Amino acid sequence: MTFENPAALWLLVLLPVIVLLYMLRARRQDVDVSSTLLWQRARADLAAQRPVRRLERSILLLLQLLAVTLAAAALSRPQLPLAGGGRGTVIVLDTSASMQATDVRPSRFAAAAAQAAAAALRSAGPVMLIEAGPRASIAVPYGRPDAVVAALAGASPTDGPGRIEQAVALGLGQRLDGVPPQVLVFTDRAAAPLPGVTYRVVGTSGANVAVTGLHTESAGTSTRVVVRLRALGGAARTVPLELTLDGARVLRRSVSLPAAGEAVVSAVVNGSGVLRARVDADDALRVDNTRAAIIGRPRPRVLVIGAPDRALSEALSVLPVKVARAAQATAEQLAAADLVVLDRLGSVALPPGNFLLIGTIPTNLPVASGGTVRRPSVLRVAARHPVMQYVDLSRLQILQAMALQVRGGEVLAEGEVPLIWAYDGGGIRAVVMGFTLDQSDLILQVGFPILLQNAVSWLVGGDAMLTAGSSLVVPAGEEASASLDGPPGRTIIRSSGGRFVVPSLDRAGVYTLRAGTMTRVVAVAPPAEESDIAPVAPVPVGAAATPPGEMRRRAELWPLFIAGVLIVLAVEWVLWLRRIPKVRGGLRTTRTARLRGEPAR
Fold first, then answer.
1. What was the pLDDT predicted at 9?
2. Helices 558-578 and 59-75 sit at what angle, rounded to 10 degrees?
3. Within a 10 A sphere around the Cβ of 582, how many other Cβ atoms?
């Protein structure tokens, strides 16, 4: 039995008070006497006696004590857990990169997993475990708590982002017999509060130094490298930065970082291979101290299909890509290209691959054209998307654009309608521009070369860098299988639909995919936002949330105690009425008459 309001039990201190009052109460008995003259001295003797009398057995006293006890118990809201009647409990565990921080020993993730295991064992009903990593997924369906505890013991954090909102939405949808579950979220960043959701935040510090960016640009036989460093949540620091190419040091420099600021270091590197930038900083999060990129690899093959466009051809010619043009392409040409540019082709169905579509609508993606729009303006851009980084389109003028209607993907630039849209899924990665170059002044904008370079890099991995948690899709050609070597070890990938699909690269590092004569090397880095490890506490809403282990169906017992109080008071009332003298014919019938031996009247 538990009590929802245990403070009400303090009312039990009234019990000794009632007993004391009962002992202090003077009990008198009416006696008929002929004169009070002989009783004057008795009154003086009675006044000299102690006021406290010996406690005698009294059914009325016992009933009063019982009534107070039952009332105090009722006000404390007693509850009795129902055997086998537990409400579903969904445990959401954050597996993002920031959970590797060691400001909580041994790590935030280990502390959160231990708390989640304790909460699972205290739950009366079935328990489910959802991991909130790059993709929210059900790790353990509804079942016994010990199954969740076993899964938590073998769980580990990823190097990618944590989709807390998606995981919470997934958990709230896991109803049992139509009853919504209680959702427990163990994370270092609480999201917006929702009914039925309780956050348990781990983490104490936000101090961290990270390599948040590593950009490479090929220039003939050399590569220009730009490294971005950032200090978060701490004082100004000076840290050593080291660049290595295939393990050989090419640069070592001390970099001064202002408090809560960043610094940029540039260098020129000759050669090809795996370039790594690393800072030697003693901080809570180590996974973001290193970032890798692939430089000096063969140029991506770009196939342009459509009417000749001089501006597009000249823009592609300055990029580190090999460009081929065709009015129509065969399946072999599409499979051999790293990127296909479709320029003003109307509507087409896309096979697996990477595509840049200009004034072209893919019929098998969640986007359609709802007519045209005259002179739209760019009002918003997704500045954090890789395609739109460092791109300024605020002065872009468009004569006419398609009114894109999207049902997924991500809008990169929009005004009255979406203007640039990106999609990644089902083996297809695409960027769709809802306007053509001849219907805008985009080629005159300073941001056009950057936009094109970013689009090529994101579509084909121009610098061969992906964010942890991203998928990798490579055309398979005639190969049936491929081997993937990376930080987790070697994995065999089977081709599906003419492509090799790696659903999620959750560990940062360098991966090599080999199939026949084809070799693809990519670098995977943690997302820059995971370097901000400052814990985010939940927003308080209303009353305090129910603690873990108390999320179960319980029988309320206070109505029974209230009924007991009423019954006790009724019995006491009846007994008290029986002690009141009765009046018959104007004469009082008392116990006094019986004591004198007179007949009762």
1. 82
2. 160
3. 9
